[in-house]
């Protein structure tokens, strides 16, 4: 496995782990059921995964540019 693939797996895992406190906080604060609909949770996880992947891509690009110099 190359390092880019490992970092992408790490980014998606981090997005999923970031979602756990949101779900736990919703249960602790007893938020309405509408907040916990799976469509909203899935959309938020996908958004976090995309953000993590973009950040990972930007950081790996910067590392690559620094290696060339």
UniProtKB/TrEMBL annotation:
<protein>
    <submittedName>
        <fullName>Uncharacterized protein</fullName>
    </submittedName>
</protein>
<keyword id="KW-1133">Transmembrane helix</keyword>
<feature type="transmembrane region" description="Helical">
    <location>
        <begin position="35"/>
        <end position="59"/>
    </location>
</feature>
<keyword id="KW-0472">Membrane</keyword>
<keyword id="KW-0812">Transmembrane</keyword>
<feature type="transmembrane region" description="Helical">
    <location>
        <begin position="9"/>
        <end position="29"/>
    </location>
</feature>
